[in-house]
Q: What sequence folds into this?
C-alpha cells in the first residue's frame, strides 16, 4: 500500500507523465478488477487507506465526523470509519437517507459498520476535530441536493481540517467545474487513479493537497484520458556550439501603445536562451521608456530574415497584426500565435484556412479562455466547462499544438492525448505573463524537434517559476523573465 503526494495549492511534485483517468476510465478499471476470494475488495482497501492517510494528516485529532453519501463514496467513508473506531477514535458517522438502496459494495460496508456497533446518524454533529468528506465522488451529476448541500455548507463554515475522499464533494472529477456548494478540502485522496478535474479549472482551489492511492490497480493506455505534463529534461548545450545552434526567434507585435507586450516576449525569448532574437514592432512610435536590451535586434516586419526563423506573432499586435499574418502563416518555419493574432484568425476564415494548411507540428497557439471561445465561436463558460475537450477541439480544428491557458493549462495536439500542466499558480494572473509564455515558447519551438515538446516544456517552466517565487516578493512579468 503506498500513498503518493502529487501537488499542493502552490506547487507540484516533479514527475514523469502521470496518467489522469476519467470517471468512465475509473469505472472500467474497477469493473475489470477481479475480486480475490479471502482478500479485501477495492472498497475495503480504500477504507483502510483512507483511515491511515487521515490519521497521518491529523494524528492528534480525536473526534471524526464522517459525512457519507448514498453511493460508493459513502461506502468508502463507512469502511474508513470502521478502522478509525477500532483504533480508538471517536467516529460520528452521518449517512444521507435515500429512498434508493446503496450500491452493493457500499451496502456491504454499511452492514459491516453496524456489526461493529457503530451508530449511524442522519444529521451533522455539533462540532468535530476533523471531517472526512465521503458525500459525493465520481458519481456527482448535478448541484448537490439536500441534505448534501446543507452538510457541505456546514463543513465549509466550520473551517476544520477536511479530508476529501476521491474528490471534494461538488467537484466534477472529469472537468474541474464545480457545482454549488462544493467542499473546500484541506487535502484530497484520489483513489485508483488521479482525475483531470483535480488539476484544471476550479480543481486546484478546492482540493488542497492532492494525494493518490491506486489500491493496487494499474491503468492501461486505453484507460487514460490525459496525462500530467511531466518535468522536462534540460536541453544539453554542447560545448562546440554557436549562436546558430540555438534558434532565431522573431517577435512580430507591439502596435501603438502596446510595444511593451512585444518587448516582454522578446526578452523572454532572449532569457530562455535563443541564439538570436529579433524584434519587429508593428508601430515604433512613442517607444521612449520601453527598455529594450541591446542583445535584441530591431527590424521592421518586412526586413526580417525568413530562413530558419521561429516567429512569435501577436503580442500587443492589436488590429495591425492581421495584415502581417498571411505572410508568416505561409512562410514562418515555426510559428507561435498569441493574443491579437488569435483574435484576427477568429474573424478571418482566410487566416484560419492558412493556419490549417501549415506543415504539421510547426505551430503553437496560446489562447486564454476568451480567445479560445472566439476561435471556436462559443462562450467562455463553454470553454471552461470542459477545458480538455475545448483544447482538443482547437487542436483538431486548426491542426496545430494548443496551450489553453488558465488554472491547469491544457496542452493539446491532433491525435494526441492532452496534458494538464501541474505547475503555476494565481500569481501568474497578471498582465504580461502571457507574453512571457509566448516568447519562451518561441525559443523552445526553435530548439526542440516538435511543437508538442516545446509547448509542454514551456508551460511547465513558466509555471515552475511562479511556484518557486519568493512569498514576500511581488511577481511581475518583467521580473519573471529575469528568472528564466
Ligand atoms: N465500487 C468500488 O469498489 C469502489 C468505489 N470507490 C468510490 O466510489 C465512488 C463512486 O461511487 P458511485 O456510487 O458511483 O458515486 P458517488 O458515491 O460519487 O455518488 C452516487 C450517489 O450520489 C447521488 N448523487 C449524485 N449526484 C448528486 C447530487 N448532486 N445531489 C445528491 N445526490 C447525488 C447519486 O444519486 P442518483 O440519484 O444520481 O443515482 C448516488 O446515490 C468513487 O468516487 C470512490 O470514492 C472507491 O474508489 C473504491 C472502489
Ligand atoms: K468526496
A:
Amino acid at each position: 500500500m503506498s500513498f503518493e503526494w502529487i501537488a499542493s495549492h502552490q506547487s507540484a511534485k516533479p514527475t514523469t507523465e502521470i496518467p489522469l483517468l476519467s470517471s468512465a476510465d475509473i469505472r472500467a478499471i474497477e469493473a475489470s478488477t477481479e475480486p480475490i476470494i479471502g482478500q479485501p475488495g477495492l472498497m475495503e482497501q480504500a477504507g483502510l487507506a483512507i483511515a491511515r492517510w487521515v490519521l497521518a494528516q491529523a494524528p492528534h485529532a480525536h473526534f471524526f465526523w464522517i459525512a457519507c453519501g448514498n453511493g460508493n463514496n459513502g461506502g468508502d467513508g463507512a469502511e474508513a470509519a470502521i478502522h478509525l473506531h477500532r483504533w480508538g477514535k471517536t467516529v460520528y458517522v452521518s449517512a444521507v437517507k435515500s429512498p434508493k438502496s446503496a450500491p452493493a459494495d457500499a451496502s456491504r460496508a454499511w452492514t459491516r459498520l453496524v456489526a461493529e456497533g457503530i451508530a449511524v446518524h442522519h444529521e451533522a454533529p455539533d462540532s468535530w476535530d476533523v471531517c472526512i468528506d465521503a458525500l459525493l465522488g465520481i458519481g456527482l451529476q448535478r448541484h448537490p441536493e439536500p441534505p448534501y448541500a446543507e452538510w457541505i455548507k456546514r463543513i465549509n463554515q466550520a473551517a476544520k481540517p477536511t479530508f476529501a475522499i476521491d474528490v471534494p464533494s461538488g467537484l466534477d472529477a472529469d472537468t474541474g467545474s464545480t457545482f454549488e456548494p462544493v467542499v473546500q478540502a484541506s487535502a484530497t485522496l484520489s483513489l485508483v487513479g488521479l482525475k483531470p478535474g483535480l488539476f484544471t479549472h476550479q480543481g486546484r482551489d478546492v482540493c488542497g493537497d492532492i494525494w493518490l492511492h491506486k489500491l493496487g490497480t494499474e491503468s492501461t493506455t486505453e484507460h487514460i484520458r490525459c496525462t500530467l505534463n511531466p518535468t522536462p529534461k534540460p536541453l544539453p548545450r554542447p560545448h562546440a556550439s554557436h549562436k546558430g545552434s540555438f534558434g532565431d526567434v522573431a517577435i512580430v507585435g507591439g502596435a501603438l501603445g502596446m510595444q511593451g507586450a512585444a518587448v516582454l516576449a522578446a526578452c523572454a525569448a532572449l532569457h530562455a536562451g535563443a541564439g538570436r532574437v529579433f524584434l519587429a514592432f508593428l508601430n515604433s512610435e512613442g517607444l521612449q521608456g520601453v527598455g529594450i536590451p541591446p542583445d535584441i535586434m530591431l527590424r521592421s516586419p518586412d526586413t526580417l530574415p525568413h530562413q530558419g526563423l521561429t516567429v512569435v506573432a501577436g503580442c500587443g499586435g492589436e488590429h495591425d497584426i492581421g495584415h502581417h499574418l498571411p505572410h508568416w502563416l505561409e512562410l514562418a518555419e515555426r510559428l507561435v500565435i498569441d493574443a491579437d493574432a488569435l483574435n484576427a484568425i477568429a474573424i478571418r476564415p482566410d487566416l484560419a484556412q492558412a493556419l490549417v494548411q501549415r506543415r504539421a507540428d510547426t505551430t503553437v497557439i496560446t489562447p486564454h479562455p476568451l480567445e479560445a471561445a472566439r476561435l471556436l465561436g462559443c462562450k467562455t463558460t463553454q470553454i471552461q466547462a470542459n477545458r480538455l475537450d475545448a483544447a482538443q477541439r482547437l487542436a483538431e480544428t486548426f491542426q496545430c499544438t494548443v496551450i489553453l491557458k488558465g488554472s491547469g493549462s491544457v496542452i493539446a495536439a491532433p491525435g494526441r492525448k492532452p496534458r494538464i500542466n501541474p505547475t503555476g499558480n494565481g500569481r501568474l494572473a497578471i498582465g504580461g505573463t502571457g507574453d512571457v509564455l509566448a516568447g519562451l515558447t518561441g525559443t523552445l519551438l526553435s530548439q526542440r524537434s516538435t511543437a508538442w515538446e516545446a509547448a509542454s516544456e514551456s508551460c511547465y517552466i513558466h509555471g515552475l517559476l511562479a511556484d518557486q517565487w519568493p512569498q514576500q516578493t511581488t511577481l511581475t512579468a518583467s521580473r519573471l523573465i529575469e528568472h528564466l
User: Anything to note?
Assistant: The chain has two domains: 4-228, 243-482. The chain is about 35% helix and 15% strand. Residues 423 and 463 are 4 Å apart (CA to CA).
